[in-house]
Specification:
mainly beta; five-stranded antiparallel barrel; three-stranded antiparallel β-sheet; about 45% strand; globular; Xrt_dep_XDP1; Ice-binding_C; signal
């Protein structure tokens, strides 16, 4: 067990470059060393693409505040807020007492498509949200009641929620590129919520979910920088393929995105 008392992790992933984008998987099992002079930041290195991972927690009626993260060996990372016990199972990312989550801030706009967990207890209902607003989000302005926005152009947009099997990665449609994403223990408010007491239930429920985040996968926007949401390429991608066809047979190649 390796404890990282940090509110943020700088994680790097292996990228596979393509003409339009590059796909990466960021593993949270890399060796993390706190930066000199602070206990709030740790750096994990495994390649050339970076993302800052910050932990937050909010109780009923509270706005989100920074929390700390712990790396639990090969199981992944858990989150603990101030004065929370780090005994099992509350050493994980959970929604017992407070809703815990991690915010991902990519240096280049990215579209998440999968995540994996290395441990769970009782259940693992997880939500993924994407920032579609302008500028940088301020988590201190949000709580579990106002976190999900109904707008497609501002705030946090719910991407998907699922009851995740710890033996497999959860794949989903990210819906667009953004520099900021949330991976959260389930906090309610979406279709299908209800009584769900263990993995395999057909519904989702808050209060009994405990999991450790192992990795996440996404596609990095080529030539992009920071910022809010960018729609998934459509006609631009088709135009690019047409242009590539002009170059000639010697420069044609199959691409997987």
């Amino acid at each position: 067990m390796k404890r990282v008392t940090a509110s943020a992790l700088m994680v790097t992933g292996l990228g596979f470059a393509g003409a339009a984008s590059a796909q990466s998987t960021w593993s949270l099992l890399d060796s993390c060393t706190p930066n000199s002079g602070t206990t709030q930041l740790a750096t994990c290195t495994s390649g050339g693409k970076s993302v800052t991972v910050t932990a937050y927690a909010a109780g009923s009626g509270e706005n989100f505040a920074k929390a700390s993260m712990t790396e639990w060996g090969t199981n992944g990372i858990g989150v603990a807020y101030t004065n929370e016990t780090t005994q099992s199972p509350q050493h994980a990312i959970d929604n017992n007492g407070k809703t815990e989550l991690v915010m991902l801030n990519f240096t280049t706009a990215t579209m998440l498509s999968a995540l994996s967990i290395g441990w769970y207890q009782t259940d693992a209902d997880i939500s993924v949200l994407r920032w579609v607003g302008t500028g940088a989000p301020t988590m201190a302005n949000y709580n579990t009641s106002n976190l999900v926005s109904s707008s497609t152009t501002q705030g946090w947009q719910l991407v998907s929620s699922a009851d995740v099997d710890p033996s497999y990665s959860w794949s989903f449609n990210g819906g667009g590129y953004s520099s900021w994403w949330l991976i959260s223990s389930y906090f309610g408010g979406v279709s299908g919520s209800g009584d769900d007491n263990a993995y395999g239930g057909s519904k989702l429920a808050a209060g009994n979910d405990y999991f450790k985040l192992l990795s996440f996968t996404g596609t990095t926007q080529s030539g992009g920088g920071g910022g809010g949401s960018v729609p998934e390429p459509g006609t631009l991608a088709l135009a690019g393929l047409a242009l590539a066809g002009i170059v000639g047979a010697k420069r044609r190649r199959a691409q997987t995105v």
